[in-house]
Design goal:
heterodimer; A: alpha/beta; D-Maltodextrin-Binding Protein, domain 2; MetI-like fold; five-stranded mixed sheet; 19 helices; 12 strands; B: alpha/beta; 10 strands; cell membrane (chain B); amino-acid transport (chain B); ABC transporter ATP-binding protein (chain B); ABC_transporter-like_CS (chain B); ABC_ATPase_HisP-typ (chain B)
Chain lengths: 486, 245
């Protein structure tokens, strides 16, 4: 069995290695033409980084705004295509670029030499300083880098600031988190003493939260590393050239300072005026809707597949049995988060139009199937052998025995455990937020970004999850009770 | 008398453990055979080999001339319905009530009409004295009642032979009688029966032949009178002295 699952693993792994390569080759350099043919420019960003990119609510709809988005709009207009924004974790942006989930990445990203190894960058379109966000009450204590001796510094994982802190503040602990919002919560709750942040972003947070303050700690900065540039997949030179043309025009007219940043600032103040939770209830409703869709669909397919795997595992066919065991052990032995990312970026590399929602549902269903298979198997195995013997001695076939004797009895045992799986999926499905599925968890993060409030949205999401799981277990308990009396 | 069941050089091993050793016997139509012997002697395994609930390791089991170990699953299913079996632990289907238990195989295997199956089930319940329990679920019946339902369920397939695997061993003493009574009636109606049992009184009264098993072989066989009064083997004498004292 061990050998079989190893074998499966190797196959999957090789598949994952091969697929991105084939596409890199295929992309060569008709990249600009491809985008023009499609008619849309798909842009990846991480919209929790005001004033570069963030969200506002307009007429109940989420809109992506910020100076990067304005620039991307200008670029799309210049090459005559529509703009489509895909929001995801900063960490996932480069992977999305490599797997062609997006045509370009604009996220206040610095073209560091490491990144240049895997990404082609445009010219720098904007340069900001590297700041620290601190609690106002510590303002007297922290002024320069040396004042932070022995303190914990927060930074966004995968960001330039993270490397700066690592390299220039060697005596300090660095706490890396994927979301700036979470870092700011950590700062406010004293988990970290400061958060290293890009100038404009730091100022945005401070202006929306009067317990915070910005300082310039004086990082030693290589000018070429602080500017922001647009990322394209390696070798997409025609797109890079087109982007450079747009950037040159924008720079000539100083559009960023004269137009984009003021617009972003206006959006930010309009956000902070409306940042009471009541204004964002539609966000949560949408989140609940998606969480329920993912859960219900995954429960359905998880049950179907799980039944299949259970039958395979119980079958006398050695191959079917081995496949089922390998699948179940492999899926149960790897984290759902990894599976979700693998399906989205791995399988998504083969089927490029695979939407995040579908990828999320596939991953959660496949994951659930393994657990459901075990529930069903143990349910079936809990039926005493005497039942089968009695049935077979009456001349009933294996199939008839399953249908009339084993399955009806097993279902009664399985039902409560299946219900638990349903409840578990409501919670587990929150992991799909990492690939940008707009479930409750993801919507909560949007509300955090939009309102600059860290804890309240978490609390609301927590209560909403509880209402869903508790309500569902009550409903299931009711049916279970009914079944017992039947 | 034609041979209904013919066992040829039957052997059965579980791993290294040889449970049955080279048994060759015959059961003729209408015969009532009681298989007795000490625990662990292979009686139940022998019985279960007769309808191939256990696959024999060596040898053959012929039923009405067909070798049960050498035929397809379908043919085996067809022959099994002619061999009713009653288990120590009743094995009624708990998800069905009494009459559904009895009707299931006639409906699904024999494709009998529901009316005919119901009619037959009612007659069988009458026969085992449980006409009033048709709608009850097995859990609500006593052990003796459950075993009588199990006998009715097996009879519903109109078997040629009935195999009983210690049918009264799991019962409270006061319930043994009602089950043995049903079995005795069945024997007197001419049913071919192979009964693995510890009920010596029943064996004496009802059996045509006693097969005494020990250590995986049939050590001796004979009429009840001969066996119980003058056992030939030392093994049988020893066994009888222990259980009769």
């Amino acid at each position: 069995m061990k050998k079989k699952s190893l074998f499966l693993f190797i196959i999957v792994f090789l598949l994952a290695l091969i697929t991105p390569l084939t596409h890199v080759n295929a992309a060569s350099d008709n990249s600009l033409q491809q985008v023009k043919d499609k008619g849309t420019l798909v842009v990846g960003t991480s919209a929790d980084y005001p004033p570069y990119e963030f969200t506002v609510k307009k007429n109940g709809k989420t809109k992506y705004v910020g100076l990067d988005i304005s620039l991307a709009q200008k670029f799309a207009k210049d090459i005559g295509v529509k703009l489509k924004v895909k929001n995801m974790n900063f960490d996932s942006l480069l992977v999305a670029l490599e797997t062609h989930k997006v045509d370009m990445v604009i996220a206040g990203m610095n073209p560091t030499p490491e990144r240049q190894k895997s990404v082609s960058f445009s010219n720098i379109y904007y340069t900001g300083d590297q700041y620290m966000l601190i609690n106002k009450k510590d303002a007297a204590q922290f002024r320069k880098i040396k004042d932070f001796k022995g303190k914990t510094i927060g930074a966004q994982t995968g960001s330039l600031q993270y490397s700066l802190v690592k390299d220039q503040m060697k005596g300090n602990d660095v706490k890396g988190l994927a979301k700036l919002n979470d870092l700011v919560i950590a700062l406010q709750s004293q988990k970290v003493n400061a958060v290293a942040m890009e100038e404009a972003t730091a100022k945005a947070f401070a202006s929306n939260n009067h317990t915070l303050k910005v300082i310039n700690p004086g990082f030693d900065i290589d000018e070429s590393q602080t500017g922001s540039a647009i990322g394209f997949s390696k070798g997409a030179d025609s797109l890079v050239n087109a982007a450079n043309k747009t950037i040159a025009m924008v720079k000539k007219d100083d559009l960023i300072n004269k137009e984009y940043i003021p617009t972003a600032a206006k959006n930010m103040t309009s956000n902070s005026k409306t940042n009471s939770m009541a204004n964002y209830w539609t966000y949560f409703v949408k989140g609940i809707e998606y969480t329920l869709i993912i859960t219900v669909v995954s429960v359905f397919f998880g049950f179907m597949l799980g039944t299949l795997f259970a039958i395979m595992r119980l079958s006398r066919n050695r191959l079917a049995h081995a496949l089922a065991v390998a699948y179940i052990e492999f899926v149960r032995g790897t984290p759902l988060m990894v599976q979700v990312m693998f399906v989205y970026f791995g399988i998504g590399a083969i089927i490029q139009s695979l939407p995040a929602l579908i990828a999320g549902i596939i991953a959660v269903s496949l994951n659930s199937a393994a657990y459901v298979a075990e529930v069903i198997r143990s349910g079936i195995e809990s039926i005493p052998a005497g039942q089968t013997e009695a049935s077979r001695s009456l001349g009933m076939s294996q199939r008839e025995t399953y249908r009339y004797i084993i399955i009806p009895q097993a279902l009664k045992n399985i039902w409560p455990a299946l219900g638990n799986e349903f409840v578990t999926l409501i919670k587990e499905s929150s992991i799909v937020s990492i690939i940008g599925v707009t479930d409750l968890m993801y919507q909560m993060q949007l509300v955090q970004s939009a309102t600059y409030k860290g804890v309240i949205p978490i609390f609301i999401a927590m209560v909403l999850y509880f209402i869903m799981t508790f309500g569902l277990s009550k409903v299931l308990g009711y049916f279970e009770g009914k079944m017992k009396h039947a | 008398m034609p041979n209904l069941i013919e066992v040829q050089n039957l052997g059965k091993s579980f791993g290294d453990n040889e449970v049955l050793k080279n048994i060759s016997e015959e059961v003729t139509k209408g015969q009532v055979i009681c298989v007795i012997g000490p625990s662990g002697s292979g009686k139940s395994t022998f019985l279960r080999c007769l309808n191939v609930l256990e696959d024999p390791t060596t040898g053959k089991v012929l039923f009405e001339g067909s070798n049960l170990t050498g035929i397809s699953e379908n043919e085996l299913n067809n022959l099994r319905e002619k061999m009713g079996m009653v288990f120590q632990s009743f094995n009624l289907f708990p998800n069905m009530n009494v009459i559904e238990n009895i009707k299931l195989a006639p409906l699904r295997v024999k494709k009998m009409s529901d009316a005919a199956a119901t009619q037959q089930a009612k007659e069988l319940l009458e026969k085992v004295g449980l006409a009033d329990k048709a709608e009850q679920y097995p859990q609500s019946l006593s052990g003796g009642q459950q075993q009588r339902v199990a006998i009715a369920r097996a009879l519903a397939m109109n078997p040629e032979v009935m195999l009983f695997d210690e049918p009264t061993s799991a019962l409270d003493p006061e319930m043994v009688g009602e089950v043995l009574k049903v079995m005795q009636d069945l024997a007197e109606s001419g049913m071919t029966m192979v009964v693995v049992t510890h009920e010596m009184g029943f064996a004496k009264k009802v059996a045509d032949e006693i097969w005494f098993m020990a250590e995986g072989t049939i050590q001796e066989k004979g009429t009840p009178e001969k066996f119980f009064t003058a056992p030939k083997t030392e093994r049988a004498q020893d066994f009888l002295s222990k259980i009769l004292s």
